Amino acid sequence: MTDAPPAHAVEKFRDWRFGLFVHWGLYSLPARHEWVKNRERLTDEDYQPYFDHFEPDLYDPRKWARAAREAGMRYAVLTTKHHEGFCLWDSQVSDYTVAKTAWGKDLVGPFVEACRAEGLGVGFYHSLIDWHHPEFPIDVVHPQRDDEEAKAKAAGRDIQVYADYLHAQTRELLTNYGPIDIMWFDFSYPNHTYPDGSPGHGKGRDDWRSEELMAMVRELQPDILINDRLDIPGDFVTPEQYQPDAPMQRDGVPVLWEACQTLNGSWGYDRDNLDWKSPELLVKMLVDSVSKDGNLLLNVGPTGRGEFDPRALATLASIGEWMRLHERSIRGARPAEYTAPDDCRFTQKGNRLYLHLFSWPMGHVHLHGLAGKVKYAQLLNDASEIKRIVNDPHQQAQNTTMGGVSSETLTLKLPIQKPNVLVPVIEL
Ligand code: H79
Question: What residue intervals traverse the membrane (predicted)?
């Protein structure tokens, strides 16, 4: 047993750079956010119709895996169980599973097989929170405060009985489906203070028995990477709907990280939500993550019938077209040792430097510290040459037309028209 994953597993994860998150469960039927049970204070009885009508007749995970692969993703993480408590596999310790619905069969196994067939790494998301289990003390009913309703619901419940269940389910998932690359637990919220200053009761490592759970995960899957939401340090950190400012650190030391982002602000299928991010913004988020040595895990919430809806597919296809032309600057890439100009991001692979231009400059772009270091420059999308201008302060002609640029600076002359790609990349 080890307390860290092997180096080859870490490097594989870093090289992937881009993955698919899938949030799928009973909440896909109300189709108004995966927190609907909590947000709308739905009782188990209110929620029962979604269990009764869950019948994903169009489920074909090969289609999901192919869409991910074509978008340039290299791994996929599925919600085996979200906060609602519904299990997408035939758990032996629960009746609240897909096996007990009209559909009647495991959804996790086919997902794992589809990922493997498309060459994708496989991850399991598993909720620590469980709004269905009879021994889980629900203490977040109202998002702004602990309230009497929550206290009444939590009374007499024994979280250690729930922890046994959590451990048993994790064991099933990591025993029955072969090698799994990522375990993504969600989430801890140690005792906290609400915005109004009132104390909030939370859950953390003692509730989940996190040390013991993590040891079991490593014992069952020695190469797995475990995220950081058990309220003890994990193998990678997981900023949620947030791009960090710089490569992430823990105690001053660089740490593996993965940003997770939604397509439209909801993780579960949310039919009427119109807050869709543009493919351009999503590519920028991917580039931004890689430029800071992180991954991007981009979420799709499939419909209750088991399909990615057309808006999600169109977005993935646009990103895939960009990735087809620019994969070189992303896959296996690392941060660069140079500082990028305003509104640009650098990535680096070997002796190639990739300049990603988030806005199109005014005819030239200035690269400080790169004079004399670049043998050739080209647009990545069409391999068209980009002319380099070395700023020599001794040359009178240049001084009059291009004054004030340091001799350390390499200036690139750009076409007036922005290339017709979401984010242009210049390879140096
Ligand atoms: O699965 C997706 C989301 O459903 C889940 N994580 C992603 C991957 C997620 N939803 N919300 N959060 C994570 C953070 C929410 C925190 C809050 Fe609270 C819940 C703020 C108020 C209620 C926890 C409990 C912190 C304060 C009280």
Answer: none
Structural domain includes residue 337: no
Question: From the alpha carbon of 194, which atom of ligand 1 is closest?
Answer: 26
**What is the three-class DSSP state of 308?**
coil
Average pLDDT over the chain reads 94
pLDDT for 367 beyond 70: yes
**Could you report the per-residue pLDDT of 128-176, keeping only the tens digit for each?**
999 999 999 987 656 666 677 777 778 889 999 999 999 999 999 999 9
The CA 140 to ligand 1 mean position distance, Å, reads: 10
Instruction: Find, among 124, 130, 101, the residue nearest to 38 by Cα.
Output: 130
- One domain, residues 409 and 325: no
Determine the distance separating the centroid of ligand 1 and the alpha carbon of 237, expressed in angstroms. 16
The residue to mutate among 83, 129, 140, having the most atoms of ligand 1 within 8 angstroms of its beta carbon, is 140
Does residue 196 register a pLDDT over 80?
A: yes
Residue 397 CB partners (closer than 8 Å, separation 6+):
none
Q: Quote the ligand 1 centre to 188 CA distance (angstroms).
A: 9
Query: What is the domain count for the chain?
Result: 2
Which two tokens mark 86? 């519904």
Q: Comparing 151-155, 193-197, 283-287, 364-368, which segment has the lowest mean pLDDT? A: 151-155
Q: Is residue 80 part of a domain?
A: yes
- Per residue in 32-53, pLDDT (tens digit) is 999 999 999 999 999 999 999 9
- For the complex shown, is ipTM > 0.85? yes
In the chain, what is the greatest distance between 2 CA atoms, to the nearest angstrom?
85
What is the DSSP-derived secondary structure letter of residue 62?
H
Residue 194 lies in a domain: yes
Determine which helix (DSSP H) or strand (DSSP E) holds 110, and give its type and residue range: helix 108-117
- Beta-bridge partner residues of 270: 32
Domain end marker among 329, 360, 379: 329
